[in-house]
Amino acid sequence: MFRTIEDFLTIWKYESESTQKLLDTLTDASLAQEVTAEGRTIGRLAWHIVTTVHEMVSRTGLEFEGAKHEGPLPTSAIAIVKAYQLSNEAMISAIQNNWTDAILSDEHDMYGERWTVATILQILVFHQIHHRGQLTVLMRQAGLRIPGVYGPTREEWAEFGMEAPEV
Ligand code: NI
User: Fold this and answer.
1) Residue 165 has what pLDDT?
2) Which of 97, 103, 135, 147 is deepest in the core (most CB within 10 A)?
3) How much distance in Å is there from the Cα of 158 to the middle of ligand 1?
4) Ligand 1 centroid from CA 126, angstroms
5) Helices vs. strands in the chain: H and E counts, helices first
């Protein structure tokens, strides 16, 4: 649980850079990749990660320019990457300019429940990690090179001239 804004920003810096790194490896052709007919495509899943930044955090009343949930699904990978970068930068600067640590205990209506701002930020992080994991699987199936997040991926071990260790 985040007790200071600085704690969140420190965690978010690593998490958002990891997401950015993953989105950077998307290609236009990969966006339509899906595993099952009912499942989200890569493009849809990536866009969900991007738009959640504004969708979730703006429920606190914080105002910033971010890619909108209702907006059209981009057909180019670079548009998704750019939208994430801009939404993220706008959110961080709005937080830095408007919030103090005391705000973390404010409560807001969230999806039929009452969540503190600290909880909202925690869920933002967990939600992104959850979908980033799903995206990683779809991207690997699409033949994309997967960057490591919490440790090297198979591709990165190979580039070190090593095999990924059995765990
Ligand atoms: Ni979701």
Assistant:
1) 82
2) 135
3) 32
4) 10
5) 5, 2
Question: Is residue 68 classed exposed, middle or buried when 0-12, 13-18 and 19+ CB atoms within 10 A define those classes?
Answer: middle
pLDDT digits (tens, 9 = 90+) for 52-77: 999 999 999 999 999 998 888 999 99
> What architecture is domain 5-159?
Up-down Bundle (1.20)
Q: Which of 154, 157, 130 shows the shortest CA–CA distance to 144?
A: 154
Ligand 1: centre distance to CA 48 (Å): 7
Cα distances from 34 to residues 2, 70, 80, 95, 140, in angstroms, run 35, 21, 17, 35, 11
- Rounded CA-CA distance 10/3 in Å is 12
Tokens standing for residue 153: 């991926």
**pLDDT tens across 2-40, in order?**
999 999 999 999 999 999 999 999 999 999 887 777 788
CA 160 to ligand 1 centroid distance, Å: 34
Q: Is 108 one of the annotated binding-site residues? A: no
Q: Which tokens hold the place of 35?
A: 């595993």
The CA 96 to ligand 1 mean position distance, Å, reads: 25
- Summarised one tens digit per residue, pLDDT across range 101-136 is 999 999 999 999 999 999 999 999 999 999 999 999
Domain boundaries, the chain: 5-159
